[in-house]
Input
Amino acid sequence: MTVRLGDIAPDFTAPTTQGDISFHEWLGDSWGVLFSHPRDFTPVCTTELGYVAKIKPEFDKRNVKVIGLSVDSVESHIKWEGDIGETQGTPVNFPMIGDPDRTVADLYDMIHPNANDTQTVRSVFVIGPDKKVKLTITYPASTGRNFDEILRVIDSLQLTAGYKVATPVNWTDGGDVIIGAAVSDEEAKQLFPQGWTTVKPYLRVLPQPNK
Ligand code: BEZ
Output
């Protein structure tokens, strides 16, 4: 099943390294990041999981719950986590879904037969508190993800959920933003009384409004 932006994230129950979960209930009112990796005991995945563990406080600060998945069992994940803590410097501090029968992987279309039909690809789903999918990214097995970029996108998603703005190329939190194309100048005067710079009628720039 293809999961598209704006879809309700498919719900499921699954075993994890921190006990059985019902996904939507586990998310509660938080944002969520569900990410898959090809297999346990593989090198790129080891570095990714170690890094996510290291920056977990950054996800916590943003009210985002993080959960990993591969088509291995919870028992396998738990054994592998020993290696991750030992080699990457931070013990894994978020749940990992065991999915040996591929229930969740199939639900989220994480198996790509063109790449390998027995492994999950490196998928990322960012889910909002409304349970809707806000971001999907798919990387090939050979390329480790940039989780700082995922935090950057979450900053943009959380900002644009509250203000009628968009974020420009390479924006990071605190940078100038753009007034949404659907917002008229009249409405913008109400929304942004502090004013903005009109570079072109369709390109109106202002400092980030919540800073
Ligand atoms: C890795 O995590 O290193 C990896 C996993 C599957 C295929 C290629 C690389």
